[in-house]
Amino acid sequence: MTNPYDVLARYYDWEHASFSDDLAMYLGFAKRTGGPALELACGTGRLLAPLAADGVSVVGLDSSAEMLAIARGALEGERLLGAVELHQADMRDFALPGRFRLAFIALDSFGLLRRPADQHAALTRIHHHLTLGGLLLLDVANGNIRGGEAPDELLLQHTGLDPLSGRPLSKWTARATDLAAQVDHFTYFYDELREDGTVARRTARLALRYFGRFELELLLGRAGFAVEALYGSYDLAPFASDSERLIVVAVKTAREVHPKSP
Ligand SMILES: C[S@@+](CC[C@H](N)C(=O)[O-])C[C@H]1O[C@@H](n2cnc3c(N)ncnc32)[C@H](O)[C@@H]1O
User: Fold this and answer.
1) pTM surpassing 0.85?
2) Mean pLDDT, residues 98-105 taken together
């Protein structure tokens, strides 16, 4: 399976440079649990670097060599490379030494696992790597409010200067939603304006699953977790009808989980 983030890596920090709304939440849970913490699908280290800078013992795992190379460079630049372990692995099938008190999958990345069998495999591996009573945080978009929007749309999502070329860069996103499968199919167009006025376009495709609240609770229960709390925003407001986010805090309760997928 190819990882679309191998293509998207070049643009990821350009798009997310000013996004840190979720950082205080992860810092709070890292302090509460005392670490060590494991971030699955850690990408370019957007969260790893500030967590490590704050003294959290943190390990990052991602399947994209391109995203991890950027993370490594950023951590090196901030003299934090010695403080963070990075692993290239698939979150559905990984084995790390040690056990963690906190694991998290940020910013919709759990939805990159589209099939229930893949979701179960990842949750089972995470369960194995947590201490008993350890916490798992999942942050996904609130799928309970989906269905009223247009089934497809095209929008200009981000503009600015390409940090590599210095040329004007725009990101257009086309969404086509499969309501029956609870999947958004995104096509991203990155348009770079060349000096001669022509446009160089790079395209990447990505499919993202969205989840309902009780679906997540059932998935977690099946993997040996109990839901401790549900939040609707990064400032930990209770999950409500109009919440944009569906943030689940789950506790590892059972000692062993049958590794078979549902
Ligand atoms: C939206 S980025 C999230 C990056 C980071 N967590 C953040 O919040 O900025 C999604 C990441 O998931 C990674 N990814 C996708 N499928 C994966 C898998 N099966 N196992 C591990 N990482 C995966 C991609 O390589 C990408 O870096």
Assistant:
1) yes
2) 97
